[in-house]
């Protein structure tokens, strides 16, 4: 059995990584650091939080204004969530771009997508805890869409709300979920890291060099890059927290929740804007929910979608298609910031079609190959 010193040497010093990995591979370390920071700042705020519709808004602002460095802790938590989602999306883009889901690494991709889904839930539950105008009405809108899901929608909505309206039970449930889910996610992150160290990293130019010359030890070059990336992101967060603390906040987050005054234009956090644009674009609630589900599922099951030998023209343009697919999501997020109009609606639907087409193409080829293979049996 290996000693602790040998395990540290194997996994933190002599762990083999591809020689030509780039700066996108440092995002994983940034994610781990920021997730730990989010837990630390979240615990600091949870100590003083009151999960009550009458006291929630006051307790948050009391923590920010009266406790020593409370304003800094809250700014770090708010800005940290944005940096966490930015790093998460970049990490997932890198996984798709370099086909990090191929071969035996498929299980790594699945655990990563579980982490992605849990972080989305953590972000949603956390955004409601401020109990401001934007928080309250965002919960009302999202739970109404959840209630439109056939068969199970009404039950899910009732479980989330703790009743039939948004109130004290809803806030208590969201607070509990927001406190428990990060530790559940932490277990999946540990599992994800264990799998990465067991299956190895994907090379950016895999197959072009002899295996013996394609890998190097993670220490010192790769670890130095990770440290530099973390320092750069810490500098960015300091700038956001100390110089531009309000740049990531909606003006409605400074107004307590008012059940009788609906804001003219509800806007979610930037990292939820693509999903918000979909909900705003489709006339039918169920269409919006199904579209969001399709986007999440296609991203999850991309190892099963792109596991066939495709025509060379498609294989050679895979990376370009990956870039355009993620650009379509960025454009969809920009559409989420615009007021609803026919032009915005059409552009949003076009972005959705382009993104889903990225996954529909290999599925169509699979279907044609299946028909061609079994044509003789059917005739």
Automatic annotation (TrEMBL):
Its main location: membrane. Its cofactor is heme b. Residues 1-205 form the Cytochrome b/b6 N-terminal region profile domain. It holds the Pfam family Cytochrome_B. Residues 208-377 form the Cytochrome b/b6 C-terminal region profile domain. Binds 2 heme groups non-covalently. The chain crosses the membrane at residues 21-49, 69-91, 107-128, 134-153, 174-198, 218-244, 286-306, 318-338, 350-371. It is a multi-pass membrane protein. It comes from the Bacteria. Keywords: Electron transport, Heme, Iron, Membrane, Metal-binding, Respiratory chain, Transmembrane, Transmembrane helix, Transport. It is found in: Membrane. InterPro entries: Cyt_b/b6_C, Cyt_b/b6_C_sf, Cyt_b/b6_N, Cytb/b6-like_sf, Cytochrome_b_N_euk/bac, Di-haem_cyt_TM. Component of the ubiquinol-cytochrome c reductase complex (complex III or cytochrome b-c1 complex), which is a respiratory chain that generates an electrochemical potential coupled to ATP synthesis. Belongs to the cytochrome b family. The main subunits of complex b-c1 are: cytochrome b, cytochrome c1 and the Rieske protein. This is Cytochrome b.
């Amino acid at each position: 059995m290996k000693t602790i010193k040998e395990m540290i040497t194997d996994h933190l010093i002599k762990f083999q990584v591809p020689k030509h990995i780039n700066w996108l591979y440092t995002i994983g370390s940034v994610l781990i650091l920021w997730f730990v920071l989010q837990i630390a700042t979240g615990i600091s705020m949870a100590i003083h939080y009151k999960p009550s519709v009458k006291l929630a808004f006051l307790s948050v602002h009391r923590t920010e204004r009266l406790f020593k460095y409370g304003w800094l802790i809250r700014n770090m938590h708010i800005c940290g969530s944005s940096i966490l989602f930015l790093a998460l999306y970049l990490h997932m883009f890198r996984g798709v771009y370099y086909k990090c889901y191929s071969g035996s690494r498929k299980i790594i991709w699945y655990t990563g997508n579980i982490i992605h889904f849990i972080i989305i839930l953590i972000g949603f539950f956390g955004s409601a805890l401020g109990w401001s105008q934007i928080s309250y009405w965002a919960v009302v809108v999202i739970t109404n869409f959840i209630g439109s899901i056939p068969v199970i929608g009404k039950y899910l909505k009732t479980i989330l709300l703790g009743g039939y309206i948004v109130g004290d039970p809803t806030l208590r449930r969201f607070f509990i979920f927001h406190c428990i889910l990060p530790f559940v996610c932490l277990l999946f992150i540990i599992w994800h890291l264990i799998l990465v160290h067991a299956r190895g990293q994907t090379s950016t130019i895999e197959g072009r060099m002899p295996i013996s010359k394609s890998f190097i030890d993670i220490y010192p070059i790769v670890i130095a890059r990770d440290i530099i990336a973390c320092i750069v992101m810490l500098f960015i967060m300091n700038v956001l927290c100390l110089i531009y603390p309000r740049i990531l906040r909606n003006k409605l987050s400074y107004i307590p929740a008012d059940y009788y005054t609906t804001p003219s234009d509800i806007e979610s956090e930037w990292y939820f804007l693509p999903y918000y644009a979909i909900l705003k674009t489709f006339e039918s609630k169920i269409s919006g929910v199904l579209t969001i589900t399709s986007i999440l599922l296609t991203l999850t099951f991309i190892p099963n979608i792109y596991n066939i030998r495709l025509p060379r023209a498609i294989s050679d343009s895979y990376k370009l298609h990956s870039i355009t697919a993620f650009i379509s999501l960025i454009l969809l997020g920009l559409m989420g910031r615009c007021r609803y109009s026919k032009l915005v609606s059409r552009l949003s639907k076009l972005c959705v079609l382009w993104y889903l087409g990225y996954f529909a193409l290999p599925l169509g080829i699979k279907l044609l190959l299946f028909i061609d293979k079994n044509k003789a049996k059917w005739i």
